Structure of Amidohydrolase:
Amino acid sequence: MVLSNQDIADLVAWRRKLHAMPEISGEERETAREVQQFLSHTGPDRVLTGLGGEGVAVVYNGAEAGPTVMFRAELDALPIEELGDVPHKSGIAGKAHLCGHDGHMAILAALGRGLGRERPQRGRAVLMFQPAEENGAGAAAVLADPRFAEIKPEYVFSLHNMPGIALGHVELREGLVNCASRGMKIVLTGKTAHASMPETGVSPVPAVAALMPRLTALAQGVFPSEDFAMATVTHCTVGEAAFGIAPAHGEIWVTLRSMADAGMLQLCARAEALVREAADGAGLTSEISYHDIFDHCDNDPEAVALLRQALDAEAVRHAPGRPLRASEDFGRFGAVGKSAMFFLGAGVDHPSVHNPDYDFPDDLIPIGAKVFMRTARDLLG
């Protein structure tokens, strides 16, 4: 399974087309259609659509019995305005592929071209284009879809580009690779009053002002220690946009982060206690809800060994690296198969993911593709 120069040119052009038409989590309908159309000429044996939302699974069968091996990429973009000046810049205001999922899809599509020309000898390869990774809902929704049982894998592999690592180099480790995280939405409610008589109402302003630094102070431990915890206030609002009303409503959104799921439960309990204390002390009611829930991610040792074997065979430089504070919902696939993700360097000085001037380096497409192709060949023949 070797990519030609024309293949690479086609994949780069397609990646840039995807970049210009970003769709955020839960809205990836046109992106899913692009995937189906681009891979239709490879003659897949089966295509499942609408998995867990807009997910697409493209299946290539071998002639003999064998394992099911899944390779996963993400469909969704981010609700961020792109400020870069590339010719393929986002054509949709306020949305952009600033995490590289367009490039991940191109790498998976490259594998599809290879499998279309040379089917596995045994088992089957499944290319999973997963929706809604950015809000943590996609993998769980795919796994909950009853049709997923029809393509349940023994092995699952993925990659993520990573600025800060030398271009084309790889970091790959066993065990914990991504932190657990979740968004905590705090709503505080009191009673409005005329701005000239604030004492006749119950304002959430003092509680909001006190809670933000106290939540941030929940941070503990030195990353990547087991007791590491982090709280980042990401949004705050109080009252209406009016000068004549002392407010009754306040919200704080905070992202909680821990090394592992057990630590997350403890961190949530500490944060909830702070909220109750602040609300009770100010005569407010409080509501807490959780969003964008990511479990921590573990790399299975056997799956890591298979990726290392492929990296060595393809002469891709790699090192163990270290866990990442960022979260990733790929870890949920570890509940159904031996899973591992590797991190493919986007360049030491490349803009970071989620930065408004980030763009996926096209040079990574053939590198990621050959690692996946070698892994598929080693497992499926």
Remarks:
- The first helix runs from residue 5 to 20.
